[in-house]
Model the fold of this input.
Amino acid sequence: MTATCASPIADERLIDYWAGDLPVADGDAVESHLFACADCSARLETVASVTGGLGALARQGRISGIISRAMLNKLQRDGVRVRQFTLDPGETVPCAAYPGDDVVVTWLNADLAGVRSVSLRVTGPEDRVFGVLDDVAVPATATSVLWATPGAFVRSMPSTQLRLTLRSMDDAALLGEYVLEHTGLEAAGGIGG
Amino acid sequence: MRQTLDAGDGELARAIGAGASEAAESELYRRFAPRVRLYGLRHLRNEESARDLMQQVMLLAIEKLRRGEVRDTEQIGSFILGTSRTMAIAARRKDMRRERLRDAFLAPRGFAEPEAGAALDLDRLEHCVAQLADRERSVVFQTFYAESTAATVASELGVSEGNVRVIRHRALAKLRACVLAGRQAS
Done:
């Protein structure tokens, strides 16, 4: 049975099906096609493989960037060990990641009323740029932005001061500046967990 | 063997009913077991349950074919899909019971799921994810890890559902291409 599919399901539709975003009747129709079509099933297999991989990365704490509260809840439900720090604008907070911390989530509190998306710039000593996140959407009701970093990455960092600058993407207005005083594991005396 | 590989699904089903060949059963399993697993993953969202479903459905289908109990062998795909639907309902109930027990008696970490992406090079995928735009990364993780619908993601991001679908599709296409490029390079 090597015949190619005469009426392949569009990629967008396959992805909508896999994401659970099709009405029931449409989902049923896709399933009927998949059980009669090896080609489209194989295409769905690649979608499933990549999206399964995303889940595996998340469960290992290998996620970076701004995450939603729903993501944080799911990580915690899955037993991912999350170390959290919370900062108000202008605040300096000591931080470190310890063995066993899968992911570090930093809550950046800010007045986000009317802000649709933000940028986050992370710099070290002498203004060395560690990372820039651009055009990250924030929900209308948000009062903080959650920045996730893999625990393994944080553990690998030496002691340093990180400056976080949060701006509105709408008008580049400054929403908050925050400082993390990061202590590397060596300086912390090789913390045993 | 060549004949079995080239046979249509209906021919395979009839060959099994006629008691003809182990090869026909193997080929039917090879073709449909992955589809049942995908169905299970889609509806049960759990690799272990999906694999259980796959085994149960395929065993039942082959047994029914052997006994001549499948009326329309030409529509064997529909029969296997129907069986998958019925058995998935029972599996979902079982999963819910299991989750309730887990929540009541065990720490979540004790029940870590097997990694669905085991066949993937996760290091490569992580590299590919890092190449995505922040918004794309956020959409794919919210959709495929946090299991949020397009409507929920759209409301979180303040964009339309259609826009979420476009971002999602574009991001997955990039990830697939990047993962494949990594495979070809190695």
Remarks:
- Chain A is about 30% helix and 30% strand.
- The CA atoms of residues 74 and 122 of chain A lie 26 Å apart.
- Chain A touches chain B through 59 residues (CB under 8 Å).
- The two ends of chain A are 56 Å apart (CA to CA).
